[in-house]
Design a protein that fits this description.
Elements: H1 17-23, E1 32-35, H2 45-55, E2 65-69, E3 75-81, E4 86-92, E5 108-111, H3 113-121
Parallel strand pairs: 1-2
Antiparallel strand pairs: 1-5, 2-3, 3-4
Organism: Marinibactrum halimedae
Protein name: Transposase
InterPro entries: Transposase_IS66_Orf2
């Protein structure tokens, strides 16, 4: 009897984004760039590399993560160069959508690793407002 692939709705032990980062060896200094516009997810390494070079106007060989989302915003792909070849990582949500940056005048959005972690968890990082930074010159 041949083994079959698990159903899309089988729950397995999940890994947190930091564990995923450790698995594919990027660091907190690695830049993360989101391509704001949706991408045809039939594109693979070559097609996404062309988007990085021609539309995002970035060096695809730099140590960075290039993140793409499909039109339904239920899948993301991450392209990166690891000095031996390209790698492509993909995540599909079974429910819900990724909170993708709203349309603005830029095709490329640079995000922090904290924002990346929030994005993977479904947090709309554009709506998060930290407390105002206070600067005092003396204590009364």
């Amino acid at each position: 009897m041949q083994d079959s692939l698990p159903s899309r709705h089988v729950h397995t032990q999940s890994r947190c984004p930091s564990e995923i980062a450790d698995m594919i060896e990027w660091t907190h200094s690695t830049p993360i760039y989101l391509h704001r516009n949706p991408v045809d997810f039939r594109k693979a390494i070559n097609g996404l590399s062309v988007i990085v070079r021609d539309i995002m106007e970035l060096d695809v060989y730099q140590p960075a993560l290039f993140v793409f989302c499909n039109r339904r915003r239920d899948q993301i792909k991450v392209l990166y160069w690891d000095y031996t070849g390209f790698a492509l990582w993909q995540k599909r949500l079974e429910k819900d959508k990724f909170k993708w940056p709203k349309k603005n005048s830029f095709d490329t959005v640079s995000i922090t690793h904290e924002q990346w972690s929030w994005l993977l968890r479904g947090v709309d990082f554009e709506k998060i407002q930290p407390h105002q930074t206070l600067k005092y010159s003396h204590v009364a």
